[in-house]
Amino acid sequence: MSEITATPMQMTPLAPGQLPLHPRMHFVWALNHSLWFSLLLAAVAVPLLVRFTGMPILAALLLALTAGVCLGWTYAGRYAAHYSAVYLADGVLIRRGVWWRSELFVPRARIQHTEINQGPLDRRWNMAGVRIHAAGTHLESIPLAGVPLAVAVQLRDALLDRRTHADGA
Amino acid sequence: MAPERRGDECRLHPFSWLFVLVAQLRGVALPAIVLLLFGRGEWWEFLAIVGAVLLALYSLVYSFGFRYRISNDELLVREGIFDRTERHIPFARIQNIARRSNLLHRLFGVTELRLESGGGTKPEAVMKVLRVSDAEALVALLRASRTRSMVDVDVEQAATPAKEVLLHLPLSELVRFGLISNRGMVVVAGAFAAFWQFSPEQPKSVLRVPINWIAQMFGEVSAHHFGLLTVVGGGALLLFLAFAALRLLSVVLAILGHYGFTLEREGDRLGAGGGLLTHAHGSARIDRLQMLHVEESVLHRLFKRMSLKTDVAGGARGANDQSGKLHWLAPIATVAQVDTLLAQVLAAPTLTALLWRPLHARAWRRRARWSRVFWLFASAGLTYLFGALGLLALIGVPWSVWSARGWAGFTRYALDDRFLAYREGWWSRRYALIELDKLQAVELKQSPFDRRHAMASIAVDTMSADPLGQRIDIPYLPVAEARALFAVLARRCAGRV
Questions:
Q1: Same domain, A43 and A69
Q2: Quick one: CA dihedral A134, A138, A141, A145, positive or negative?
């Protein structure tokens, strides 16, 4: 895979503030959650439906898929509503979770390195995910949801602490 | 060749291969012996042993290829025969120096030296093995170089820092430590598990031995027509003897592991170690200490003692606990000694002087809720199965309320301008203490139940903690207080004051 870079025009320093979510991210979440809800329903509800209502297996599967997609889409909407990643002058603040909510602050001085990941769909949509590696034990790898590629590159550069001898201890 | 001469390439001790060999063979020795004694000559098992011996031979040659050189500000380590590695380790990056010597090491007058940096799970360099005098010279050189490279004030004083003994454990304390620690039980359980492993084809036969003993004993007991009281009394005595034997084993293990334990301070470094046969000594710079853990179990409290451990930056803990890295500051100490140590090492306030703040006033209710539900269901199930006798399980309900109240009564957190502290427990208690500028990340969490009760929890992440060990995760805080705490901690760990 070629190196992930953005064109020089896009390389203005990142201003503190909320990181823009890529418009396609909602779709990615919806797809992801629909898949999981459908699988869960297919594993749990389909055998029950077939056993107790005598519904044909195909009809039960179709029902599970429909319900899974509806649930997944709704859940993704709520997930997106509660998700935010804010780049601050001295760190990153991430809010996430629908039922179990969490607000996580990672100071910039503690960030060891960052990673940009791009899948095939991400590349097509010019989207990228950023993963922050901190020096802690339990929260050493923190994923950020998809942002436009240019923002991901700006964020990577902004988060690198270029002070020497900063090992975070 | 003595390493004090800069620029010279140094080798390990001529007998190094022996120690590499022993370390390699130790892993396969036990299965090999078992195989030779009980094996049925499966060809692949012998093949595995041949492979292990070849591996050992390779590491033997490998140890001959190990060279190190000291230049002005870095240590150069060259290792490998076919796959050569050359590592430049700046002195400034070496954070922990650990020395380890077992009985064999001492017979040959050598020691194993590990140099560790701030991050990663593997040491920067492992020198297996050096002559003790060479190792001491190298350590002295590393320290002197580091001191020079850091600050030029008080070089004279820093070059020969005075050793100050902070804690020394006499034998009587080690006996107490053994009685409290109960490592004997762990060892017996481990031995049992290993025994089980070696005879997988007939696991029941492992159990049959003790069962036969018991059956035999009962056979003799019933043959003698002893009264019920005698049988019960005899059983209780047997249990007591088994318990006493386990505790005795724990005491022996404590003495073996920590005999002559001493914690000392040398300039800006802390060193601790002890042991009867294998002497493990670990040291670290004081500013590398991360979270401090104080444990106070029921037995600790019975003996009016505590234990004090630390996480040290650099490498993951647990995986290489045997490396001689600084871990125990005090396996056992009185409350006053722990307070003194906290003050001497970190200039921290005493555990009682911290301003402890309680959790939410209804924390105990939430703590008790799930165990109350469990006991209600358990009682219903048991009543269904065994009739009215099952109602006895309802005792669990007041018990869970009582224990939750006890827990919420003790569990507190404290925040001053330098430290975050958390204490938790009821009968068994633990304290955790961390300097605010060593926090790595702060998290505020809310479960659906938290939201309903307007509560939240605050968790902090620290460096080099035991991933399975205890962390600071303060539950059941009033949500406004949790938000304020989150803001303060975030500000402090980002370096804003």
A1: yes
A2: negative
Query: Among B118, B448, B461, whose Cβ lies nearest the Cβ of A137?
Result: B461
Mutant choice from A133, A137, A144, A161 vs B, greatest count of B C-beta within 10 A: A137
Give yes or no: residues A65 and A100 share one domain: no
Query: What SS3 state is found at B494?
Result: coil
Q: Are A88 and A132 contained in the same domain?
A: yes
The DSSP-derived string for A16-85 is SEEPPPPTTHHHHHHHHHHHHHHHHHHHHHHHHHHHHH---HHHHHHHHHHHHHHHHHHHHHHHHHH-EE
The answer to whether residue A108 sits within a structural domain is: yes
Q: At what angle do helices B203-223 and B183-198 cross, to 10 degrees?
A: 110
Asked if B297 reaches chain A (Cβ–Cβ under 8 Å), the answer is no
- CB-CB neighbors (< 8 A) of A164 in chain B: none
In a domain, A9, yes or no: no
> Position of tokens 């049992």?
B192
- Domain B9-160 falls in which CATH fold? PH-domain like (2.30.29)
What are B87-134's pLDDT values in tens digits? 767 676 676 777 888 888 888 888 888 877 654 455 667 787 888 888
How many degrees, rounded to 5, is the angle at CA B270 between CA B264 and CA B271? Answer: 65
Q: Which residues contact B66 (CB under 8 A, 6 or more apart)?
A: B11, B12, B16, B77, B78, B79, B127
CA separation for the pair B13, B10 (Å, rounded): 9
How distant, in Å, are the alpha carbons of A36, B184, B194, B337, B484 from that of B34?
49, 24, 12, 47, 61
In this structure, are A88 and A125 located in the same domain? yes
Give CA–CA dist B365/B330, Å, rounded.
36
Nearest of B275, B282, B270 to residue B260 by alpha carbon: B275
Same-domain pairing of A92 and A134: yes
Relative to beta strand B67-70, strand B74-79 is: antiparallel
Same structural domain for residues A41 and A67?
Answer: yes
Residue A116 belongs to domain spanning: 84-159
Confidence of residue B320 (pLDDT cuts 50, 70, 90): very low
pLDDT of residue A33: 94
Regarding whether A89 and A154 lie in a shared domain, the answer is: yes
Segments making up each domain of chain B, as ranges: 9-160, 181-257, 262-359+411-493, 363-407
For chain A, say whether B96 makes contact (Cβ under 8 Å).
no
Centre a 10 Å sphere on the Cβ of residue B129 and count the other Cβ atoms it contains: 28
Residue A15 is assigned to a structural domain of this protein = no
The chain A residues in contact with chain B (CB within 8 A) are 90-91, 93, 99-110, 112, 134-140, 142, 165, 167-169
- Numbers of helices and strands, H then E, in chain B: 15, 21
Query: Is A59 within a domain?
Result: yes
User: What's the structural domain count of chain A?
Assistant: 2
Q: How does DSSP classify residue B428?
A: S
Secondary structure percentages of chain B, helix, strand, coil, to 5: 50, 25, 25
Task: State pLDDT tens for residues B117-130.
Answer: 654 455 667 787 88
Q: Which of B56, B466, B437, B126 is nearest to B295 (CA)?
A: B466
Peptide linkage before B129 cis (omega within 30 of 0): yes
The pLDDT, as a whole number, for residue A1 is: 39
